[in-house]
């Protein structure tokens, strides 16, 4: 029996959409579960999924370590029988892990409490917890065992720690949203990628990089440019070190989001580099009707015959023949990233796996590939000789699929869109944002350029869109998305209700600019006084509609009303914009409705000449800095 025909239990009310759709959405928001007849009925509160994100084998191949993000633990399995050896609790929302070179310690990056868990792999217990930078996302120890390198997503850097004590030595500037680290086989270089594009001029192609670190000196020695890339994930190397591969997104955000039949929204690509390639080259994974949406994890076979890439949105593992790939690169002049026939020259298989495959790892002989399917709590075990799933490891935990879980599966899959090209998670990486501006077409080609918004904390901030024309999330995620993004009407009413429920129940990450007791620093106190002021420095009253505290009132920092703040551009159809929420505003550059302000400071120093967006032209630079310091605490 499919989930569409399963019994659903709901228990609450939300704002109505309209008639039947509204009623179904209200039922969904009350938290229930689609269940099979033989399954336990559970509510959102008592369901704790594993959500395996990364997998890794011990050096001797005897153990399989599984990093489970939602249950916040490392599960240790027998690699032969898949029996559970131990479940080890770690910190909040772990995102990455790695073993020491000798395999005696396992390091876990806990992204929501800014710590590393150090696990003794003999005792299988946490022996230390070390503080680190803001939102650590991966960790690697050097081969000498002297230093740890940690990629921090919010502070945009790589922290260098003493591997024995956890004491921080220094920080190295990386790309925006620094997230994933890979050590070269000889241990001499560390390669760091980042998930959000670096700052660039308005309406220009996104720019990203692979930050290359000299491990012995702990200094950045190169920044490999990734032009037109926004969203860079795992990197892998061949055992001889001559071939490197990085998984990435290539958005087409400078043209109207249309013509999906021509691959019109994203290319899913690899950048390949190293001695076997020469100059770094970007190659597509997509083919018409065979897209590889949301590439994430990468592994190269020990004999360098194959590259394996997980595609979270397409729910496949893409298999690339390395020799065919190299022949194609050397025989054809680049660029060919827009060529939807290119991948047929080197992609030899697409292996269907579970919901939202992420991390993967190969056995030492290369014959078995383990793939973590994050949204169905399974590990696919692939026989690489046949390119088939030989077995599936079901992780212990709840078997029901709640409304929220089904909504999350819908959010990450690309199956709803034309030819399976894109999903919500393409533009909202890890359910957040992508740091890009888009021309979304509903208001006309080349009209109403919009900055992509953060999704955390969107509940109770309606109406939606910058112009406030969508009254609620079911409208935002339903008819509008189907028409302009998916190019088809795919959501049944219950699927839309579950998707909206997931979006509206997203948690907001910890705010790194707040002190532990939520008290304010002196600069933040001064900034709050400016935010709350009713008269300017010349004792002139500030009209209510032009006060920061009026437009950005309430717990989410918006009074949900429309205003003309003087930022209309020639491409805009109107001047009225909704007061944007301030939730985690420090993280979400660029700013303004069209992303024209590259920093919070530019909102007022460049784009507020007539004082329509708050009265700020009487402020000194130091006072404006204080205001920004306060805004970062929201």
- Unreliable runs: 1-45
Q: Quote the CATH topology of one domain.
A: Cytochrome Bc1 Complex, Chain D, domain 2
Mean of residue pLDDT values: 91
Q: Helix count?
A: 11
Main sheet summary: 4 strands, antiparallel
CATH level 1 name of one domain = Mainly Alpha
Global Rg: 24 Å
- Report strand %: 25-35%
Structural class: alpha+beta
The termini sit apart by 46 Å
Into which percent range does the helicity of residues fall?
10-25%
**Strand arrangement in the largest pleated sheet:** 1-2-3-4
Textual characterization of the structure:
The protein is of the alpha+beta class. Among the domains are: about 5-45 and about 405-505, Cytochrome Bc1 Complex, Chain D, domain 2 (Orthogonal Bundle); about 520-630, Cytochrome Bc1 Complex, Chain D, domain 2 (Orthogonal Bundle). It has 11 helices and 32 strands. The strands form 9 sheets. A 4-stranded antiparallel β-sheet has the order 1-2-3-4, with no helix packed on it. The protein has a 4-stranded antiparallel β-sheet with strand order 5-6-7-8, with no helix packed on it. The protein has a 4-stranded antiparallel β-sheet with strand order 9-10-11-12, with no helix packed on it. Helix 1 packs across helix 7, helix 3 crosses helix 7 and helix 8 crosses helix 11. The longest helix is centred in the C-terminal third of the chain and has 12 residues, at about 495-505. The protein starts with 18 loop residues before the first helix and ends with a helix. The model is unreliable at about 1-45 (pLDDT under 50).
